Amino acid sequence: MRVSYLLVLSIFLSLSTVIQAKKSKRSKGKVSTKQLKCLVCRALSNEIDAYIAAIDPSKKTETGTFRVDSNGRQGKVIIPYARSEESLHDMVDKVCERFNDYAQATEKSSGKFSVIPLTTPTGNMNPDFGNYDVLPDDELNKKLLFHCQGIVEDLEEDILELYVNEEAKKLDSKLCSAYCSKRNKVEL
Prior knowledge:
Pfam families: DUF3456
Protein name: Canopy homolog 2
Domain DUF3456: 37-178
Helix content: 40-55%
Order of helices and strands: HHEEHEEEHH
Keywords: Signal
Signal peptide: 1-21
Shape: elongated
Number of helices: 5
């Protein structure tokens, strides 16, 4: 009788261990929606910075009113094309397409979850790719595209305002304050 109790107990413990291992394997590599939105927002900010940096700085555009004032002058101003509303509207329409070339990964050194581009904006392989372990997820690109489009839709006016008026790079802390943790929050 005592042997059967020990046998049942050992079988139960073995099954429990196997179930826990499977659960931890399934949950490994999963990330919360809030964390994923934060990562997508920061990646979006990096993509916007790369888009602006890729535009020829000598390219200019006219902005302002085309009405003639009482002195016969028009209120036109020539500004860099990269930070013009025309350029940024064009970018907002296309930027989320880049998320088709992203993957989820963990940093080899820290184990921290990341969303990384597989290629650079010029089409070359990401030089930092070797620093990550890629986690396969068949649905990830759809999720990233969905979150990117949602963020762009929610923040389109803020994106235009920040990037037209700010000369600084890395505006992700201002842009992503609604999606990332409160300790990094900066009011727009």
